[in-house]
Amino acid sequence: MASTETPVCDFGAPAPDFALAGVDGRIWTRDQCSGPRGLLVMFICNHCPYVKAVRERIVRDARDLTALGIGCVAINANDASQYPDDSFENMKRVAEEYAFPFPYLFDETQEVARAYGAVCTPDFFGYNADLKLQYRGRLDASRKETAPPEVRRDLFEAMKQVAETGQGPAEQIPSIGCSIKWKLA
């Protein structure tokens, strides 16, 4: 399970569109997930220890960001045939268990993950109201273990700034996590 770090934010890159099945039985598009002040696209999965360490914080931050007008969506692009914990059925279970307040979508073809340039789980893409990229960093100082409760909420603070100003912070600390489990060609 190799760790991977996200690249530097490509400020202004447009948010690729998508139409993916959610665990709620609906097909969701990018525009349906967007809020009036922006969009947070999170590439996560069920089995990754880096994601497990921050699941509760992802839920907390998504709730707080939604109140600020930022729409949130989580996408699982892992190859479920090689990683059964990441199957659609298990996605439903995890979303229910953690009461995800955002759509949890399955990118079975992995085309959306490729369009975004996602590299790991978790991988966060924060967009402003014009759907231009403003944040590509970590949630907080957590790694495979949850960081202490008092750590800075990097993702939340950055997206709050995006909601208020349309601009992300110049300084961003990359997210780190398990590599996306790509299908064999």
TrEMBL record:
Pfam families (UniProt xref): AhpC-TSA (PF00578)
Gene3D superfamilies cross-referenced by the UniProt entry: Glutaredoxin
Superkingdom field: Bacteria
GO MF, one annotated term: antioxidant activity
CDD domains in the record: PRX_like1
Thioredoxin domain sequence ranges: 9-161
Family matches, as SUPFAM superfamilies: Thioredoxin-like (SSF52833)
Name of the protein in question: Thioredoxin family protein
Organism: Caldichromatium japonicum
